[in-house]
Specification:
Blueprint: H1 3-17, H2 23-54, H3 61-71, H4 82-92, E1 108-112, H5 119-125, E2 134-138, H6 139-149, H7 151-154, E3 161-162, E4 172-180, H8 195-205, E5 212-216, H9 220-226, H10 229-238, E6 239-243
Parallel strand pairs: 1-5, 1-6, 2-4, 4-5
Antiparallel strand pairs: 3-4
Helix pairs in contact: 3-4, 9-10
């Protein structure tokens, strides 16, 4: 290519650089830039909202108790459940008064009581908290997973569950096994296995005490009869025992 040809192309380019936009084209460019900025601002606002939602507000036990009453107006706080709810507020805010109430923060919670007293709903409410968040999993679901997939189906319940979303700045999410006793013994192929006994025993052996909560209708004697005598003594090591009064009413009636 000759030098003359190159120079001609440069001059042609220079002519295009002086091109002016019409008013309509300027309006279109500005509108496109405006929409892009709105899109960016919306994304930044959304990201900020997500970050704020992932943060767990820090409450005192008293504040958490008042929040419970405000959030759960359909649950009447009365002599049957007030003490238990207040104890849970102390526990999940790691209040120094836990020791006075016999609550040990290195243990989980075992909430027991009759049918319909509100165990599941109360523990479900507290699952997202500032110190010890957990997921609620029914005993029946764990049993079903064993029936379908064998030991592979329950392995994840016997070990720490990493908090991949880093919610509440907690490295691991705990579990609450709900309704211990309703699960059926379910076998994989020709085997029979007391699935919940296996899960709780392994969590005990791995020292996942604070990471394990349960709700149950069983008394300590019934736990020993249904599962294993050793599980009763392990329960004392694993859980803070909170019991509804046997006379507590069935709120579902």
């Amino acid at each position: 290519v000759s030098n003359q040809s190159i120079n001609q192309k440069k001059r042609s380019m220079e002519n295009f650089e002086n091109t002016q936009l019409s008013e309509e084209e300027i309006k279109q460019v500005l509108e496109t830039a405006r929409l892009e900025k709105i899109k960016k601002l919306k994304y930044e606002a959304y990201a900020k909202k997500v970050r704020e939602e992932l943060k767990m507000p820090i409450y005192t036990a008293e504040q958490l108790f008042e929040k419970f009453k405000k959030d759960m107006p359909h649950i009447e706080v009365d002599k049957w459940n007030e003490g238990i709810i207040k104890d849970l507020c102390l526990y999940f805010t790691r209040d120094e008064r836990c020791a006075e109430r016999g609550l040990i923060l290195t243990k989980g919670i075992c909430l027991s009581g009759g049918y319909g007293v509100g165990k599941t709903e109360i523990m479900t409410y507290f699952k997202r908290n500032q110190s010890n968040s957990y997921m609620v999993i029914t005993a029946e679901f764990i049993s079903d997973q064993f029936a379908r997939f064998g030991y592979d189906g329950i392995d994840r319940f016997t070990m720490p569950i990493r908090n991949t979303e880093q919610q509440m700045n907690q490295e691991f999410i705990r579990i609450c096994v709900d309704d211990l006793r309703t699960e059926r013994e379910k076998g994989n192929f020709s085997n029979k296995e007391n699935v919940l006994l296996k899960v709780l025993t392994q969590r005990y052996e791995k020292k996942l005490l604070r990471q394990t909560h349960i709700t149950t209708n069983l008394t300590p004697d019934e736990i020993e009869e249904k599962y294993d005598p050793r599980l009763r003594s392990r329960f004392r090591e694993m859980f803070n025992q909170l019991n509804f009064d046997p006379k507590a009413p069935d709120r579902r009636k």
